[in-house]
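Practice problem 4.
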């Protein structure tokens, strides 16, 4: 069987499962691929499993909301894996940038952020939502998915809010 034939067979099975409303079974069929790709890129099993979980949750959420795609579902799965890995890597860079900013601002005392004098002053100039996201991320050490659920937002939206907040902090530090 050719690669094209394998894709056609996979696409036909995916369509059948979607039409039958068997979304969970469809995602189960992709789970090993999702985990393997995350492990390959992130090289840390715990982190890879967290990111794979975010991929599966996002896809199931979209399917539960009735989302349909103009491309085969296998293509969507691969794109969402890429996006979630990119979000994770950007988050690590953002956190490193904030840590660097805190150190340069002489606020890095080894204490949790809420215990540092001036942490609240650091958050001035951020919107209330940005302050909430930063507090949940650094004071409570929550991941973007958990913050999103707590705030009733999409994880991607929370990631964007976090990114904007860190961008503002970096501009102020410069």
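Answer key:
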């Amino acid at each position: 069987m050719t690669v094209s034939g394998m894709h056609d067979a996979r696409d036909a099975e995916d369509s059948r499962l979607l039409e039958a409303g068997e979304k969970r079974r469809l995602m189960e069929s992709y789970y090993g691929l999702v985990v393997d790709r995350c492990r390959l890129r992130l090289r840390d099993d715990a982190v890879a499993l967290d990111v794979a979980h975010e991929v599966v949750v996002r896809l199931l959420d979209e399917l539960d909301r009735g989302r349909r795609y103009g491309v085969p579902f296998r293509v969507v799965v691969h794109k969402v894996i890429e996006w979630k890995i990119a979000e994770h890597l950007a988050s690590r860079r953002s956190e490193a940038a904030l840590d660097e900013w805190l150190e340069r601002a002489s606020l890095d005392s080894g204490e949790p952020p809420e215990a540092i004098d001036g942490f609240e002053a650091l958050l001035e100039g951020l919107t209330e939502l940005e302050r909430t996201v930063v507090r949940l991320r650094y004071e409570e050490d929550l991941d973007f998915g958990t913050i999103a659920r707590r705030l009733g937002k999409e994880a991607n939206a929370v990631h964007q809010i976090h990114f904007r907040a860190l961008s503002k902090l970096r501009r102020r530090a410069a």
